[in-house]
Amino acid sequence: MKNVTDRTSNPFGLRPPFDRTPDGERAAVFGYGDANADFHVIGDHPGVHGGKRTGVPFTETDAGIAVQNVFRETGFVAGAEDEPDCDDLYYSYLHMCCLPNGHEPTSREYDDLERYFDAELRAINAHILLPVGETAIDHVLRTYTTQRRRFDRDLDVAGLHASEIRGRGFLVVPIRTPDEWESDDRETIVSTVESILERDYRQTKGVATLVG
User: Fold this and answer.
1) CATH class of residue range 32-197
2) Which of the ends of the chain has fewer CB neighbours closer than 10 A, N or C?
3) Would you tell me the crossing angle of helices 185-197 and 62-73 to the nearest 10 degrees?
């Protein structure tokens, strides 16, 4: 049974390689939650999924709170909205650094942070990866599965939402960003997560069992 660390926020002491925020503002929104988790929720960056004020991923914004509430309903999250208690769940972003309001990370900036994201993902060593939104879904499919070539160049994120894709040591469950959810998208991802919980999803890393 793994026991990585009991620290909740930035459990591995990552330090962002650059800071483009004004003086006195938060430089980055680090990974947060149960570092021994089996479920790892992966967002895009703080400007999309929140945390520039709280320092916690998936807070503040409507999209972030909508994701958080999915995992409240499925039993992973309790406590305050801005500082939730996570059990068997870890949150992080592809691009942890905060940018001025209205700015999006460049391709170079995503690349600069990729090694930090990858190191943390492998340290968490979760069984289920749940990327949120097209950028995170595309990255996870390209990097942690051999399945990306099965899909069109432009991902059908609506079609992939709440599906189960076998990866290299992971089960990947894409989540459409809540800003684009349609009438039954929330219920669909809740149902998928509940279904995974009802079966034996665990595996020995490096050995093809549930996930190839």
Assistant:
1) alpha beta
2) N
3) 40
